[in-house]
Write a structure and sequence with these properties.
mainly alpha; 66% helix; 0% strand; globular
């Protein structure tokens, strides 16, 4: 990135960091107490008790690297307010505690900022533009750094997704730069920070196998089977084993691995989160509730579909993708998004925030091709709108609407300007669907609270939001899946 590029990138990064500081006094969710409790657990208790401590209902349920991350933060936290590190101080929220935890998220976002900068370097620079505002790298930087969903989830609702997505995007950048071992190492580390990223592990595994373990292609771009490198496979295996040993080794020695895994994968929580994520299960549950009236529902079907759909979508897709798609960075990103969306659509106990796992990498594709830009606009608008119920307090209503409006208007205007010489990004049906989000929000936030149904049916706004957004997310998943498969099958493989 040239000197001029560094200056505008710094301005964007500083601007969004300042905005994050302004959001410090905003509402925060129970996740604030979750992380305060984890600070206290890791600071006061020996390693052997971290995954057994249950004074609070918010027990430690992230992988060991994140526990060590909390342990490191706790040794800074004690200088702000030692009382936040008392395990028994449930729901402790002193002013110093709020400032420390908010600033810890802002500070660790430095990794995300660096990762975005590296991703911008990987963007295809064929589209020259005199105006910096129309350059793909500038647009991508804004779409990532100022992402609406990431802002409200981390800096209002409260989580550390920016830091974690920083690891993921940096691994993506390294793979795009053909620094395969670095990319593999970063992703392996990421999995031991937060295990939700296992959703996209198939994309990483097959791409590394296709692009790193096989060292050559035939003249037509197809795979040369004899080029398989045992050394490269061994190096990748060593990275995975060493990172896993460093993370889980101490618990294996203590004989606590089953306890750790039971915390990481609490299947007893049920198929769906209380806040329905806008996926297949939102549509299934709505239909199930409707059919219950007529006694026609079958609850066993949910378990069967949840067990088989994610693996089927990933396996059938990736068998084909192995031979036809994983031939370059864009193919890798397409498949990463497909893995994320497939798991979001059919996974067990999916949280609504997991939609960001597909939106952020799709941002990289959106500035490179008009077709991907259209898909991005539908997914990001629908996915971000589905996060609105996370912020249910009155003071945050104008904040979320304003931030969503600004980000959405910029996304549409910048991508439309970037691809103004090509076909329209959205068709009329897609446009109508997105416009209907406006009356839906007016009904949920203004009209419904004034009706007598509010007390008897308080879940209606969330139900309508999840189901309507599920239609959009499902449409994007189908459109992207069909588009990728037909595109790659109809064209002979070639290096990108």
């Amino acid at each position: 990135m040239a000197a001029g590029g560094r200056s505008w990138f710094r301005a964007l990064a500083l601007g969004v960091s300042f905005l994050k500081c302004l959001l410090i006094p905003a509402y925060y969710s129970t996740d604030f107490e979750v992380h305060r409790n984890w600070l206290a657990i890791t600071h006061n208790l020996p390693l052997s008790q971290w995954y057994y401590e249950a004074t609070s209902e918010w027990t430690l349920d992230y992988p060991p690297f994140f526990a060590w991350f909390e342990y490191t933060l706790s040794h800074v936290a004690k200088y702000f307010d030692p009382k936040m590190l008392v395990i028994e101080n449930l729901n402790y929220t002193s002013r110093a505690t709020v400032f420390f935890q908010r600033f810890s998220v802002i500070f660790t976002d430095i990794l995300f900022i660096y990762a975005v900068r590296e991703c911008c370097r990987c963007v295809n620079g064929k589209r020259a533009a005199k105006d910096i505002l129309e350059k793909p790298t500038f647009i991508l930087a804004v779409l990532l750094l100022w992402n609406f969903g990431l802002l409200i989830v981390d800096h209002i609702h409260f989580q550390y997704n920016g830091f974690l997505f920083g690891l993921m995007l940096l691994s993506v950048a390294r793979l795009c730069q053909k620094r395969y071992l670095e990319g593999a190492l970063l992703f392996a580390v990421l999995l031991h920070f937060k295990h939700i990223y296992v959703y996209v592990a198939p994309a990483y595994g097959i791409y590394l196998l296709r692009s790193y373990c096989f060292t050559a292609n035939n003249a037509d771009g197809s795979l040369k089977w004899r080029s398989f490198s045992l050394l490269h496979v061994t190096l990748l295996g060593l990275i995975v084993c060493l990172v896993s040993a460093l993370s889980l080794g101490p618990f294996i020695v203590l004989g606590q691995l089953p306890q750790v895994l039971s915390r990481l994968f609490p299947f007893k929580r049920g198929l769906c989160h209380a806040y329905w994520a806008p996926n297949f299960w939102a549509l299934y549950n709505a239909m199930d509730k409707a059919l219950t009236i007529f006694g026609l529902n079958d609850r066993r079907a949910g378990s069967r579909i949840s067990a088989y759909c994610p693996s089927f979508c990933d396996s059938t897709g990736n068998i084909n993708l192995y031979f036809h798609i994983y031939t370059g960075p864009r193919g890798f990103l397409q498949c990463l998004v497909l893995c994320a969306l497939s798991s979001f659509m059919f996974g067990w106990h999916v949280h609504e925030k997991a939609i960001l796992l597909a939106i952020l990498p799709l941002s990289l594709l959106s500035v490179q091709r008009a077709k991907d830009a259209g898909i991005y606009l539908i997914l990001t608008t629908t996915g971000h709108f589905s996060l609105f119920p996370l912020l249910f307090t009155s003071p945050e209503l104008p904040i979320k609407i304003l931030l969503m409006l600004l980000f959405t208007v910029y996304s549409f205007s910048s991508l439309k300007s970037l691809f103004r010489r090509e076909r329209p990004l959205l068709n009329w049906l897609e446009t109508i669907y997105l416009i209907q989000l406006v009356p839906l929000e007016i009904f949920c936030e203004i009209i419904f609270p004034l009706t007598p149904w509010k007390r008897q049916f308080p879940f209606v706004p969330l139900l309508l939001t999840s189901v309507y957004c599920a239609l959009g997310v499902t449409y994007v998943w189908l459109k992207l899946y069909i588009s990728v498969l037909t595109e790659r099958i109809s064209v002979r493989p070639k290096a990108e």
